[in-house]
Amino acid sequence: MNFKQKNILIIMPNFYSFQTNIKDELESRGANVKFYDEEPSRGKFLILKNMEDILHRKNVFDKFNKQLTSQILAEKPVSGYDYFLVIRGNVLSEETIITIKENALAPGAKTIYYTWDPVEYVRHKGKLGLLFDKRYDFDSVDVKNTDMGYELLPLFYTDEFDAATMEQPAQYKYDYVSVSAYFPYRYRYLEAFKKANPDKKLLFKLYLSPVVYWGKKIKDPKLVKNLDMDIITFKPYTHDEMRQQCIETKAILDLTQEHQQGLTMRTLETVGVKKKLVTNNSYITEYDFYNDNDYAIMTDLSAKADEAEKSGDYSAFTLPGEEWLSKPYLENEEIRQSYSIHAFVDKIFS
Question: In angstroms, rounded to a whole number, what is the distance separating the alpha carbons of residues 69 and 82?
Fold first, then answer.
């Protein structure tokens, strides 16, 4: 799609580099993009959310909404916005959306809503999307179970994770790489995988903020007692470092929470870089890129960890070996490119 001289308003979380990826893609096609963060600062958001939950106050985000609306109206282009995209909109009010639609958009402007959280986990339960022309959800189960007219649209991989831009190594450094943010469940599973796979070359790293670590060490030391510091890192990996890790490994291990249904960004990056993937998200089988040759599913990890910790037998966490890892990757270039950021932008704005 050509967005030359089109004005695009985006309200979305300031989350990793997602907003930069989308903004850069649109601007590369000639768009004038204005981005606004959809939430107050993280600390302030948590305070207000607790007030809402504990004190049952439904207007705790009113001030934020009024300030955001005033700023958007004051900074709008003279001709108005041609496209209005909201991603998640966790604290946005219906009044905010209606006011923007009535006062900041050009005649005939298109409005789009997208969520990368299941609708049950956002404050408005997906109903905010009803105010938009089009509604998209990254979660295939959500799309099937809601009656609000949502269409399925998974996340994307960026050009940095496009196999076409990567030179594969003559020899791989790792059999499996798993690098992500620290959560207790992830640490527990990675520790089990490490014990079960001493014959494999593994890079397992979880980023734990030093502030969080020392806070837990003081307040509740049991939570961080005896952590395997070979798994923990206090320094987050850069985008370039994570890209290099993808190049140097045969396969990726991606661990989601048990209730996760939508595909993670890491899953789509493995599609982009053409790497094999082991995941505990069984819903991956519903997507057109899935095949047994390149993807392996290991479920019920919590129950398996319980049993392993009791018995000392971690064999349930044995990862697929060389026979699976050495099978050539099954390529379908048309399907692979359909998950790129270029295709994502085309779909969401079409």
Answer: 17
Find the range with the poorest average confidence among 205-219, 270-284, 302-316: 205-219
pLDDT at 249 over 90: yes
Phi, psi of 269 (to 5 degrees): -65, -35
> In the chain, how long is the greatest CA-to-CA distance?
69
Per DSSP, the three-state class of 12 is strand
Lowest mean pLDDT: which of 240-249, 256-265, 331-340?
Answer: 256-265
Burial class of residue 203 in the structure, from the number of CB atoms within 10 Å of its CB (0-12 exposed, 13-18 middle, 19+ buried): middle
Can you tell me the mean pLDDT for 8-28?
89
User: What is residue 56's predicted lDDT score, i.e. its pLDDT?
Assistant: 58
CA gap 57, 50 in Å, rounded: 10
The tokens for 25 are 């893609």
CB–CB of 157/140 below 8 Å? Answer: no
Residue tagged 């798994």 (tokens): 231
pLDDT at 57: 60
Euclidean distance between CA atoms 175 and 322, whole angstroms: 9
Fold of the 7-153 domain: Rossmann fold (3.40.50)
State how far the Cα of 29 lies from the Cα of 2, in Å rounded to an integer. 6
Count the neighbouring beta carbons within 10 Å of the beta carbon of residue 127.
Answer: 13
Q: What is the dihedral of CA 112, 116, 117, 120, to 10 degrees?
A: 40
Q: In what order do the strands lie in the sheet with 105-115?
A: 32-37, 7-12, 81-87, 105-115, 134-137, 151-152
- Under CATH, to which class is 160-335 assigned? alpha beta
**Predicted pLDDT of residue 210:** 85
The predicted model scores a pTM of 0.87
Angle at 179 between CA 174 and CA 180, to 5 degrees: 170
CA distance 247 to 203: 13
Residues of the chain with CATH 3.40.50.2000: 160-335
**Which of 84 and 221 is assigned the larger pLDDT?**
84
Per-residue tokens: 315: 């064999």
